[in-house]
Amino acid sequence: GGLNAAVGYADAGALLGSDETTAQLSYTMPMAGGSLKLNMVTIATDGTTETAAESDGRELGVEYSGGFGRVYALSQNTETTTIAGVSTNDQEGTTFGGTYNLNSATKLVYYNQNVDQDGTTDNGDKFSSDTLGVRYDMAGGLRVGLLHSNFSFTDGATPLVNSENGSATRLQVRVD
Predict the structure, then answer these.
(1) Which of 19, 20, 94, 143 fits a 20 to 30 Å CA distance from 159?
(2) Count of CB atoms within 10 A of residue 32's CB?
(3) Is residue 78 scored above 70 in pLDDT?
(4) DSSP assignment of 51-118, as one string?
(5) Regarding predicted confidence, which is higher, 78 or 28?
């Protein structure tokens, strides 16, 4: 019925404490001539010892796809916490974007990413980027793409020294 779920557990062994637990849940349903997909993933990793930091991650996403292409949005969070409850690493990110089908082989691509860092490590760091491009899929699984990105990085500790803005253009060749 469009529902998929998975749970995983990895035991690090008797001498280590880095056990890992994961869960994934997704649901896909038909909607307005296309399909809507909802997705959630979590991952938790114990510290290597009783007093070591633990790590947790979460991702929530939604995607609508149809004859026009697709649009999507993701929200992600990764956090590392000490045994005393101090957040040493706390990254929160969002991504949204889409593709537009010009024809059966050519697609326009756009996506935006934003990541903020809190916690005691790299507190106040920020990254954002916008990417626009075109992708062409050929027979035999060959894909060629031309993408242009503008980005901005702000270093929370020394914003005037280590921050930067820029752009990059790349040609991608991929074989599936």
Answers:
(1) 94
(2) 8
(3) yes
(4) TS-EEEEEEEEEEEEETTEEEEEEEEEEEEE-TT--EEEEEEEEEEEEEEESSSSEEEEEEEEEEEEE
(5) 28
How far the first Cα of the chain sits from its last, in Å, is: 29
Give the sheet arrangement for strand 54-66, strand by strand.
3-10, 20-31, 34-45, 54-66, 69-81, 87-101, 106-118, 126-137, 142-154, 164-175
- Which amino acid belongs to residue 17? G
73 in Cβ contact with 60 (< 8 Å): no
pLDDT band at 15 (very low <50, low <70, confident <90, very high): low
What's the mean per-residue pLDDT of the chain?
A: 90
Average pLDDT over residues 118-133: 87
**CB–CB of 149/167 below 8 Å?**
yes
pLDDT of residue 156: 80
Pull the structure tokens for residue 152.
Answer: 């901005």
Determine the Cα–Cα distance for residues 23 and 28; give it in Å rounded to an integer.
17
CA distance 6 to 138: 34
